[in-house]
Amino acid sequence: MAFTLYALIQTAILLTNAVAVLHEERFLSKIGWGADQGIGGFGDEPGIKAQLLNLIRSVRTVMRVPLIAVNSVCIVLLLLFG
Amino acid sequence: TMDPHRGHRATKPRARAAPPAGDPLLFEDTSSRTAPSVNQGYYESGYNLGGPPDRGATMSNLFADPMANAAMMYGSSIANQGKDMVNKEIGRFMSVNKLKYFFAVDSKYVMKKLIILMFPYTHQDWEVRYHRDSPLTPRHDVNAPDLYIPTMAFITYILLAGMALGLQKRFSPEVLGLCASTALVWVIIEVLVMLLSLYLLTVHSDLSTFDLIAYSGYKYVGMICTVLCGLLFGTDGYYVALAWCSCALMFFIVRSLKMKILSSLSSDSMGPGVTAKPRLRLYITVATAVFQPIIIYWLTSHLVR
């Protein structure tokens, strides 16, 4: 497997897009991964599931706008250079 | 008025070549007051504002011409502004001071660290020593991670890969770039997976990103050794060196990370959920260790065919 840096960037963009596309109401709440279902107790440490839900929610909040820009740039570049 | 110039043979031709105005008052002042070597330094690189501050101060006093004085002041302030802006921009992404800590090594440390990487079984004390709450620099503590060895080992690995491919008559500059970027991508992937797993398991260790990059980069030393043995002694030598370096590296990683990941347990409160955590942390440490030989084999087997 020969990786180029371009492949890494592509992978990162695709993965971030995948996380950003998960819909809050239609999907995450249905499988019990909603934003309000993870906060469980304020005990010692949140469990793995709570951390994961936190991560998904923060990625979706933070990366919405930058992803629009990055995706547009990617589309233009792929149209121009294949 | 020309007599003082004759004594300073070096300044005269240099002063002629210098801008701005051919003002005789200018040359006379500078050559009469200071030593030639200081003058040369200034006229040679007219924009060398990064020099020692006392030199700049004595320089600025010498200009009787206020225009040149003002121009030099303006130029130096512009340069300082540019330098500050660049430093600020870089400082927003990574802390330069923290990076400097990782490169504060000396040759004794490098020697000892390389020996520990190749033969860690006799090393007794694996604790990272602290000095008033901040970790000691690698110069003073052999257990501290550094970024000098991984960087040098990475570059050496790329060069060695080029040489090995050349021996097999498969060399071309594109292949070298591909090899370098593949190795770099694997390091990035490993660091990201480590960061993700440490975050998910809420391990409050003091492992920063640079620490993880450092521990991830130590495998390049093993890779270099393996490839060298493979080139010198053939396929058998390659497998022997692979086994040796893998065991040594696994031992090293487990002992080093055990201190950082597993011992952060003692500061947490003793709740009921604690019993599941040590096992998961152990899994992380062992998984990191087991990943090293796999990636060493993956990245070097095609070089020693």
Automatic annotation (TrEMBL), chain A:
Main location: membrane
InterPro entries registered for this protein in UniProt: Yos1
Keyword check for Lipoprotein: no
Entry keywords, A to Z: Membrane, Protein transport, Signal, Transmembrane, Transmembrane helix, Transport
Protein's cellular compartments: Membrane
Domain of life of the native organism: Eukaryota
A Pfam family of this chain: Yos1
Gene Ontology cellular component list: COPII-coated ER to Golgi transport vesicle; endoplasmic reticulum membrane; Golgi membrane
Keyword Signal annotated: yes
GO biological process annotation, one example: protein transport
Record-annotated membrane-spanning stretches: 62-81
Signal peptide: 1-20
Function: Regulator of endoplasmic reticulum secretion that acts as a key determinant of brain size. Required for secretion of extracellular matrix proteins. Required for correct brain development by depositing sufficient extracellular matrix proteins for tissue integrity and the proliferation of neural progenitors. Acts as a regulator of the unfolded protein response (UPR).
Family: Belongs to the YOS1 family.
Protein name per the record: Immediate early response 3-interacting protein 1
Native species: Denticeps clupeoides
Gene that specifies this protein: ier3ip1
From TrEMBL, chain B:
UniProt cross-references to InterPro entries, sorted A to Z: Yif1_fam
Compositional bias (Basic residues): 1-15
Any one Gene Ontology cellular component term annotated for this protein: COPII-coated ER to Golgi transport vesicle
Biological process according to GO: endoplasmic reticulum to Golgi vesicle-mediated transport; protein transport
Function as written in the Swiss-Prot or TrEMBL entry: Has a role in transport between endoplasmic reticulum and Golgi.
Family recorded in the similarity comment: Belongs to the YIF1 family.
Name listed for the protein in its UniProt record: Protein YIF1
Species of origin: Denticeps clupeoides (denticle herring)
Classification of source organism: Eukaryota, Metazoa, Chordata, Craniata, Vertebrata
Gene: YIF1A
